[in-house]
Every structure is written in C-alpha cells, then in structure tokens.
C-alpha cells in the first residue's frame, strides 16, 4: 500500500509534542490513527478533535515500559481497523544531566522508555507485519546521538541503541516485508524538557526550544514523507534540525 490515506498507524507518545502533531497530520491525510500514551485524558481530547474533523481514531492508554500495554495497543489497531501498517515508536523521555550526577533511576527510566519501549513495539508488531506481508517501523531517535554533547550522554546512548536496533532489523528484513525508518530531530518545541531535574539545565533546554526549536509539525511531515513512499522504497534515516542549530 502506497501513500498515507487508508493506512492504519499506531503512534506511541501521542499525547503531546511530535506524537500529537503526527497523529493530527496523518489523520488529516486519511490514515486511521491509534493513539497511545500514559495520559489518557489528553489522548481522549486529541481523539475527540480528530474525530470532529472527520478523522478515524481510537485511543488506548499505554505505558510503553509494559509489554502487555504495547501488545494491547497493536491489538486495538487490528481489532478496530483490521490491520496495522505503521508503528511510530515515538514515546521518549529526556532525563538529561551529566553522567557524574549518577542519576541511576533516570538512566533506568530512559532505558525503559526509549529503548525497551521500542523493543516492546517490535515484539508486538513484527508478527502482525509478517503475517500481513508488509509493515513499517518508524522511530524517533535524536541528533543527540549524532553530535554527542555533554549532559546528554545517557539519553544519546539510548537513542543510538535504537538506531542500531533499526539497522539490525533492516538487515534481517531484506525479504521485503518490513521497512524501518529512524527520524533524528534536533531541537523541537515540545514538553520534552519537563523531565529534566536540574532547573538550570531545564531552563537552558527550554530556552533553546523556544528560541529556535522546530514546530513539531515539521517532524510530523518528515514522518509522513517516509510513510508515503511506495513499499519498495525505504527511507532509512532522516535528520531534521533547525537551520540555526549547531
Ligand atoms: P513530549 O514530552 O512532548 O512527548 C513525549 C511523549 O512520550 C508524550 O506523549 C508522553 O506521553 C510519551 N511518553 C513518555 N513516557 C511514556 C511511557 N512510559 N509510555 C508511553 N508514552 C510515554 O516530547 P517530544 O514530542 O519532543 O518527544 C517525542 C520523541 O521525540 C521522544 O522520543 C524524544 O526523545 C524525541 N526527540 C525530541 C526532541 C525535542 O527537541 N523535542 C529532539 C529529538 C528527539 P505521556 O506522558 O502521556 O505518557
């Protein structure tokens, strides 16, 4: 299936930022969207807006750290719309800070959401894609993994683990069934700073987002571009950053 209209797309981290913008754009362009995140009320509000605009949408409260929740998200897509064409594994947290702060709980959270959450998505969706003979994994990684900067080492490590995972999955999928795409955004104006504990670091990141961050819709358009290619065309990596970002 080519294009966006008619595809069934599950999106994790759909309650704000990039996930929310992606849900709106894909629904506008005729995809059926299945929205997952922990904040169910935010998902329901968004779902209501998409439905009122004529879109096809269901919501499913999902914690990606729990395999059963991600299985339920994928099952919801199949139950409601008969198939799953794309899984956008976008949920992520950025508990950034210097390694020497030894925020081992924050490290674990990032590993659980940013890496294990994506693995849970693969475990849930790969059998569906194989059975259908087609499917597309799209993940949101980060330029933090391309240009390593102090204070973001562990966050970048989780993102680069996902990048590696996508490349390995790609190489194991040359029978033409599965497409993989890693999207690496630079600064985007979202709520990602909320998880940063250090107030000075949080303020600095917030300032960068507000001063020159991309609108989340820009990343949504990149996701749509990867999705709308014919099935024999795989967009493996997209880097998208503000023109002024160093
Ligand atoms: P937001 O904080 O606005 O969105 C993050 C989303 O992830 C929310 O919907 C949140 O929903 C969800 N989420 C967090 N933890 C979980 C969980 N355990 N289970 C399910 N959902 C979860 O930030 P962004 O839109 O910026 O983030 C989206 C992705 O983009 C992330 O992977 C982030 O790392 C990446 N990214 C962002 C950049 C930026 O500058 N903003 C730059 C590069 C990459 P809820 O809390 O309701 O569960």
Automatic annotation (TrEMBL):
The keyword Methyltransferase does not apply. SUPFAM superfamilies: NAD(P)-binding Rossmann-fold domains. It holds the Pfam family adh_short. Keywords: Oxidoreductase. Gene3D superfamilies: NAD(P)-binding Rossmann-like Domain (3.40.50.720). Residues 7-190 form the Ketoreductase domain. InterPro entries: KR_dom, NAD(P)-bd_dom_sf, Sc_DH/Rdtase_CS, SDR_fam. The keyword Cytoplasm does not apply. GO terms for molecular function: oxidoreductase activity, acting on the CH-OH group of donors, NAD or NADP as acceptor. Belongs to the short-chain dehydrogenases/reductases (SDR) family. PANTHER family: DEHYDROGENASE/REDUCTASE SDR FAMILY MEMBER 11 (PTHR43115), DEHYDROGENASE_REDUCTASE SDR FAMILY MEMBER 11 (PTHR43115:SF4). This is SDR family NAD(P)-dependent oxidoreductase. The lineage of its organism: Bacteria, Bacillati, Actinomycetota, Actinomycetes, Mycobacteriales.
